[in-house]
Structures
1.
Amino acid sequence: MEFAESAVNQYLSLDPEISSQLGDLEGRSIAIEITTPPVRLFCFPRAGGLSLQSIYEGEADCKISGSLAGILKMMRSENPAEILSSGEVSITGDSRLAQDFSDTLSRMDIDWEEFLSKLTGDFAAHRIGNAVRQGQSWLQDSLKAFSIDSTEYLQEESGILPTRIEIEKFIHDIDVLRDDTERLDARIQKLERTL
């Protein structure tokens, strides 16, 4: 457990603001029950990081339960209530504490370039940072171009997917058919009453 606590606190120290915000939650306890894989962990926020324990005799102020993927998704989500309402994660006890804890961790903003500069020097860290940003930009542009190209291919070249115009025409034709059917039904009912 000491190794895990040390690793978590090392990570949290990369964002000193978050590390200090955990001090606002000092004296509180959060139980995290991960269903898959089954793990139970008790977190005790303090200024500068977290204390972690696998066994706690007292009662935790709140308990967050769910799969590891669900809990991580909730902590990264802009709308954690959506994950809670889906049932992927449940909270018992002081839900405000769970929300504050989750919000604090989700606000982590690590300056990786600053961290790298301590290991490699400013010049190398800046070059690496630029390369990563260019790589991210290239990847986003490539994915966007691939999406456009594949949509064009599936619609225009292969004819597998209909174009927007074809979809709109199909919807219009369905509306016309529905209206015609309703008029025909009204005429039939009128004829039946007349006969």
Note: The first strand starts at residue 30 and ends at 34.
2.
Amino acid sequence: MFAQWISWAAREGFAKARREPLITLGSAPLDIQDFQATILGQLGEQRLLPAIEVDIADAASHARALDADAQGVLQGIHRRVGAAILLESAGVATDRAAHLPEIRFALGEPNLDVTSIDDAASALEKRAFFIRKVGTDGFRIGYKPTLKKVVGDRRAALTGC
């Protein structure tokens, strides 16, 4: 998995002239299907695929929609926060959660204000279908949809009748 990640980061850095000083959790290439399969295999939970695609990685995901207006250092911040939440909370195998200090540490860059990370995590959780708030400063991604998704699906079903 890490070899795939480094290979992708080197290719991406050369092609787009990215200047990230380190490979951070937020730079995980979750939009690449081979990497998704590797991550899901490592986590042992294939049911997380819809959560990864809908909330973080897909072209029409919630994170990418929130990132549409971000520029400069904040470009892609919601996708990076979503990736960090996924990797820090380690899916559904444990009761772990990604807490804001861990997410800040995982994504911290010299020019990035840490309050931006907090704001991005809150905005993503408010919009996401599979990311839940845990306690006062924690987030967890799971394969069970949140109430927002269930209500949205019901409304869509009712309007379709």
Note: The mean pLDDT is 83.
3.
Amino acid sequence: MTTDSKSAVEIQRKYYADTASRYEEMHGTEGSADPLHMDFVIAMLRMLRVRTLLDVGTASGRALRTLKTALPDLFLCGIEPVGALLDQAVARGICESGSLIQGQGDALPFADASFEAVCEFAILHHVPDPRIVVGEMLRVAKKVVIISDSNRFGQGPTFLRVVKLILWKLRLWGAFNYVRTSGKRYQITEGDGLAYSYSVYDSFDQITQWADRVFVISLDKNKPSTSLHPLLTSGGVILCAIRE
């Protein structure tokens, strides 16, 4: 990890440590906070008869609580690098729903195929190199990997969405984003802390090399205004990868 990347990680972790007591209030509309979103995840886990699950970047444990209520026989484990968020998870009774480990998604302390299912809910756009985290998730998963995160190509006016896709296809997005962020590659906002420009489609090829089937599900609550693919119509997407 470069010096700049380490500095970015420190900034992000300080943000979460400072806002840990308000985490679920501040992030009540993203990731595992969407009931319909979680209903889909639960249905998929139930259909695949999943018995063990790892939640990468579990934060205050909201996803684990929801999953344990719906699937009481499921063995759950959450891994989270920020101690203050783990303290919140414990205070909210998460230890009754699953095990908690303080650790990083880019170096999961588990053997290959340790969990039947591995998931993440809106954490990949907060890491400097999502490919490493996704690679670790695929390594420790046996049956299913669920990526639920942002999609830069489905955000902003239609013209801007197309421009971003063209820049990506021409392999110019990295240079454009470098200039756009004054060399940092990330932006900092009050509501989301430090975040990188990420799309679940950045991880698509990596995931399809591991999976036999991949389902693409839009996370947008509003109906798309066009018949275009979710690549350009949804600001958030679930990739559900299944290995048979």
Note: The CA atoms of residues 31 and 121 lie 5 Å apart.
4.
Amino acid sequence: MAISTDPVGSGLVASLARPGGNITGLSLLGPEINGKQLELLKETLPKVKRVAFVGNPASVAFALRFKEVEIAGQELGLQTQSVEVRSPNELERALESATREQAGALIVASSISLAYRRQIVDFAAKNQLPAIYDESESVEAGGLMSYGANLPDLFRRAATYVDKILKGRKPSDLPVEQPTKFEFVINLKTAKQIGLTIPPNLLARADKVIK
């Protein structure tokens, strides 16, 4: 596997260190991603008090990620809210619940943004609601910012697993690896549209800035 959101929770492997079966490879999520996304939102919006995490509860990683978001939020003095979207019919109502409960920003999981990218980006723009995504494609589509694993790097690393297995190594003996390279992307056009000024030090740390 080149990218798996939660290989342990989904039952693909027994543990990251000892997969134990006939599957190994790379995990998409590192433990620091959720906290880093909250930190970036806090730096962008120093006065933000509440952040909504938008995801699909059918995803095996949903509960794990939201728990990590809650812990990171407590450390940053932020309230966190879970926004669950199971189907297209629930999307608008779920997003509106975030604004009703006065969420000042969104974290959008890839389990949702990949399926409903256009609708979410449009909703965030219409409601002037800053949002951070897992993948840069959502930022290129008009989202504010993204922070997540560098996918090309994961696919390149997956090739090393293929090489080892073809040379006789057992998948059960090859630990599942987590991301080591991450990508931070900001869309300045979107920031301007929603009346937001991105701090210069944040822009300096971005891997890519869309102007």
Note: The mean pLDDT is 93.
